[in-house]
Specification:
alpha+beta, globular
């Protein structure tokens, strides 16, 4: 209930850019060389939970990370709210 969508690194924040961001692990999971590659399975990097880790193209997981922080400033950060 309190995990912010896109917190791939489980550090209680969502970051699109900068050190320890949540975007790079998505690219790493698909192999890191071909951004259009995909990996099937419900991995931590499967932000939209569709069973496919996807860095580029339609329904990719990278865009969900950007949307989670507001979608307009890639250097913004969203910190998870805890009760």
């Amino acid at each position: 209930m309190v995990l912010a969508a896109g917190d791939v690194t489980f550090d209680h924040s969502v970051k699109y850019a900068g050190g320890n961001n949540d975007r790079d692990p998505i690219l790493t999971r698909i192999g890191g060389t071909v951004p259009t590659a995909t990996v099937s399975g419900y991995w931590l990097e499967d932000v939209n939970l569709d069973g496919v880790v996807k860095y580029a193209g339609s329904s990719n997981d990278r865009d969900r990370v950007l949307n989670s922080i507001g979608g307009s400033v890639p250097t913004a950060m969203r910190v998870a709210t805890l009760p």
